[in-house]
């Protein structure tokens, strides 16, 4: 049906839009001379699609140490999982039966949104500087010394987070999606539809590739933050272009609109990174201003296109819901008129003492009364 296709298209476009915003937020981690306006755009993209624990407005408001921010990011999935338990508990109290599918879907969506932030924080904790007078420090915060007992404990926690969450989430998603292909139960399809909606049956697992792309790009932005000879930028461009080529080769989406928007998102990310590298060259101030304006134009233009498609998709779904509600009301009114007619026949029959059928005049009176 058209409404189901529209809903599936909206879900797929929403995932593409979120992934695009998360990827361009990673560009703030590249050592490039972004203008203040472009840097703000990267920050807003990250704030709208994940938990910006290291954003300037967060670090200025909450005076936490780097270790405290890392613990908050690492334990956030556990806290959210505990908080979301109210969903099955409330449904159990209301219906008397256990419902875990809604809880699992909410937990999966939350993990998907938290994935970039947690990956970046774990990698930052393991990224130490070269020795400075025999001591090493975290590159993200030179007030934190590496090699201490506190750093060792938190490093073990960071490794556990990388293995269990950052690598475990794509792997577990792939295994679950593979098993889900053999299921016919509606619960299983609903649970993993967030990951598989929009993809061709052959490429049902492609969302795990998208997760790995984010992880690799975050690793490049963090681990090569102070590399010489623009190695960080070239590696980042290589990652973006490699996954773009893989996308163009596989064409994993069923809808051409999704394919075009995913292609546009990756092309814009590559152009943004390449334009940032051009800013490192000896160019005039006017060229820098034009380059910044170009970055803002292509990214905001693509975001507006996403917003238009999502609004159109949600509008079609809402219109179908209104039609469905209207038809239900009409059927309810029809049932009410039928019940009234039946009551009229029963009353007339009782008045006649239960003797024989209604006369033609009596039947006509009942029909007039019910219409």
Describe this structure in words.
With 371 residues, the protein is mainly alpha-helical. The chain is built from 13 helices and 2 strands, in the order ααααααββααααααα. It has a two-stranded antiparallel sheet with strand order 1-2. A hairpin with a 2-residue loop joins strand 1 and strand 2 (141-145). Helix 6 packs antiparallel against helix 7 (149-180). The two termini are 34 Å apart. Residues 184-188 have low confidence and may be disordered.
Q: What's a quick, concise take on this entry?
A:
This protein has 371 residues and is mainly α. It has helices at residues 2-26, 36-49, 56-61, 66-83, 86-95, 101-125, 149-180, 186-196, 206-223, 231-250, 256-278, 285-351, 360-370; strands spanning 137-138, 141-145.
